[in-house]
Input
Amino acid sequence: MVIALVTILHVIVCIILILVVLLQSGKSADLAGAFGGASTQTAFGSRGPASFLSKLTSVAAVLFMGTCVTLTIIGIRAEKGSILDSTKEAPKPVSSPAVQPQAPAPTPDQIKKMQEEIESKQKQAPGATVLPIPAETAPAGKAGDTKPVPGKPPDPKKKQ
Output
């Protein structure tokens, strides 16, 4: 509540200060000052009575500094710890299962050996179509194990 009131006062004082400074005429702002003539206002000498705008500028500057100091003190007192202390712990990202490394590509010798095994099994059982099981999905055995195609009669010589 207090911080809102001080903030609103601070904004109003800022606007007033900007307008008052912009409305004042600078030193040597008259026509004689443009041509290097003497000015009625001197830099270090007597200026005469202060105008209303210069008094208002002084008051606005003092209020501006006062509201700045007040907002700083309120902000320091309100800050008790780090903002990270007040936030909830973020859920940890779900890790994906470990990627299994792919089996290396078979060499030409291995391919020939697998083809020969398939051909020999096909010669033994001409009625059953036998396909090789890929090495990644093969159960604990050889990579060249074969499996009959579903819907075909199983090989009677093969143990199950």
